[in-house]
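Researcher: Batch entry, complex prediction.
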Amino acid sequence: MSAHMPIGRMPMEAALARLAAIVGDRASIAAGVLADHGRSEAYHAARPPDVVVFPETTAEVQAIVNLCRELALPLVAFGAGTSLEGNAAALNGGVCLDMGRMNAVLAVHPEDMDVVVQPGITRKQLNSQLRDTGLFFPIDPGADASIGGMTSTRASGTMAVRYGTMKDNVLALEVVLADGRVIRTARRARKSAAGYDMTRLFVGAEGTLGIITEVTVKLHPQPEAISSAVCAFPDLKAAVDTAIAVIQSGVPVARIELLDAVMMRGMNLHAKLGLPEVPHLFFEFHGSKAYVAEQAETAQALAAEFGGEGFQWATTPEERSRLWQARDNTLYAGLALRPGAKAMITDVCVPISRLAECLVQTAADIAESGLTAPVVGHVGDGNFHLLVLLDPERPEELAHAKAFNERLVHRALALEGTCTGEHGVGIGKMDFLALELGETVDAMRLVKQALDPHGIMNPGKIFRPLPASHGDAS
Amino acid sequence: MSAHMPIGRMPMEAALARLAAIVGDRASIAAGVLADHGRSEAYHAARPPDVVVFPETTAEVQAIVNLCRELALPLVAFGAGTSLEGNAAALNGGVCLDMGRMNAVLAVHPEDMDVVVQPGITRKQLNSQLRDTGLFFPIDPGADASIGGMTSTRASGTMAVRYGTMKDNVLALEVVLADGRVIRTARRARKSAAGYDMTRLFVGAEGTLGIITEVTVKLHPQPEAISSAVCAFPDLKAAVDTAIAVIQSGVPVARIELLDAVMMRGMNLHAKLGLPEVPHLFFEFHGSKAYVAEQAETAQALAAEFGGEGFQWATTPEERSRLWQARDNTLYAGLALRPGAKAMITDVCVPISRLAECLVQTAADIAESGLTAPVVGHVGDGNFHLLVLLDPERPEELAHAKAFNERLVHRALALEGTCTGEHGVGIGKMDFLALELGETVDAMRLVKQALDPHGIMNPGKIFRPLPASHGDAS
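Model: Structure tokens for the complex:
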């Protein structure tokens, strides 16, 4: 029996009865529930599972994994449903594990500045529970993603330039392996050289190597002071050069986001910001009052050198929150430029020295291809997104957008970049991964085959299986 | 033929002739050369290889790997020889790859703040070549280790509290796999979500999964100002509590090192520091002039709250360098307490909230067991070392020290810690690793078997092979 055979061809009642024996009535085949777990925030076609289960404990997850292995059922973990590359699409049907009920904070360790959570908790839920501790969890991908999902896609977002990505902030994981064993990848010590870095192996594995059931993440002190500002630039290159100069100066900028003129138009439409429709940098600085002032002063001086104008400070928490909420909503701001459209969201990341070049070439490509594609970028990391607006019902638009994205990825790879800075591979970047890393992908396949020999864990993602492993599930 | 069969039992001349065909006269079986590549800086017995080769290119390394696979010869990469857990011991003889000639800086990218190097370059060589760039490589494990060796043991050291460990600073690797393929684990972009984190898989793998032939590491801006200070404390707990308070305050302390009274005596003997022989914290702050002053002020105020006395500032570069050189030489300072002794260097790391407890219990154990074992610790990370002084020629001393270390590791594990914060597993921590991570070690073994099915890569390190893989090398 192949792991790629959809559950529909199996004795469905038997499988459901076995699942019900594990989770009781927390299994659903209701059409609405299946649809909710199969659709995508981006342009990918809906791929619903055959059944959605809502586990509440690691033991239940373990029992489900054992069942799926026995019945050769595909198993896809599902967090908040905010991934962008079809990372949780149930390509072969099977069982979707909705982790939403496993959303408890298990232990807060203020002195150690870490927290142990179940994977279904979202980042906003977590931060709301941490409010009184003086600590916070800084990774902010925009959407209110789950911590498990963010771990699995190696998410990052606006504050990665200061606080790192999920790779830098996950201390330890509890994982149910495909063979049913429950492992803990590391202790809670701040660092360790104890063997292979199994924690980092599961961070970014998109659920293809095991199911994450517990996550220990680092926390950071809530800054004494926060200051935000926006600054307009004559062109993209001036904005990028400013970002490079700020980072090289050693200013630990907390956020430094680039928005192009088209995106500013969308944001004005969507959030009524009333800002000039030219390239902007959005800054945020964290630290003591004096240090924040010093950082801001340095950044402002550097921006002025590159023609930055109209440094505007958001001094109250309300203004700040309005600004960053607008930034977090760039997807909707972008969509405001073409009501009814969907977005193909690109995700290349290049060395920052090549960023201006990449952006300028891409702007020319956009102009030539007649696309509407606003830009928003985590410019401190060299990572930027284009929201390529399209009507997914019109195949020629989708093909046009895909061809543009392919040119973009080739351009980024030629500049020593990556096809995905933070969204993961899912199904959308599979072919680009091979272009980017060549035979390294074969080494990934060897790891996959070693840890999931029957291919039950989120099959069909990241890479296609090795030919030899096709259909050999027992 | 087993990979564990020493080369001595093989047609040695044939193997040497094949090696000579690859590296010419850069292969040696001279007794002194073999001994140099088999001995340990710590207490482990010498385990020399059968032959040492000095490759100069990735292509040569690749040819050597292919030869070793064909002949089932163990292959051990060797950097600067400063590892502490027998990580590069040639347990089964075979070929030692001395990477010392592959020590070039291949590309500096100042705007991107990264550098591409060959693995044999040492950290001091690298920093000396970077001097005029305004950037530096901050990871400082004390010894002048090679970048390849530091990568392979996931090294960290005194500045990890501010700049992270090797895991956080390696951007990409070129690796020769056991099957002879040369892979590049990532592009030079600052972050990526492109599939499994193969970079981090090789960081800390101690040469058991492949031979690293190129390393891209992050650089950091040379701080505008640096300030160092020492502060005496009434007891260990007061020093640890100060460290916790400093870190929780958000001060990005660059180094915060704990030295106990015994270690201070050793340092006075060895470096004539003339400091009181009570527990001390050594601090270093990096940043702008104003920010360094602010950080130092905050730390000094916090230290005073916990009874810290006599904050002494090293204001000139010379004083600072004298201070940190003394700290870097704690191994020799410790040995000064018992001339002629060797040191067993322990390496546990616990959550910082448990550090005082761990240190106090350990101090009681030392007192009871009559050992001389000065303490030096990266207290910001919860990682500390004891230099257990012993005469390795006296088996009862070695046994006594080993029993003490075992109690220490059990203590650290009970406090959610790890047996090794930064030295790696090598041969010294193999049994502790299983205690620490349980079945996670089996998952590591599966990865090892997938990437090195014939067990030629640094065999006998980190964990013992799965029974099924014994002797199945072709």
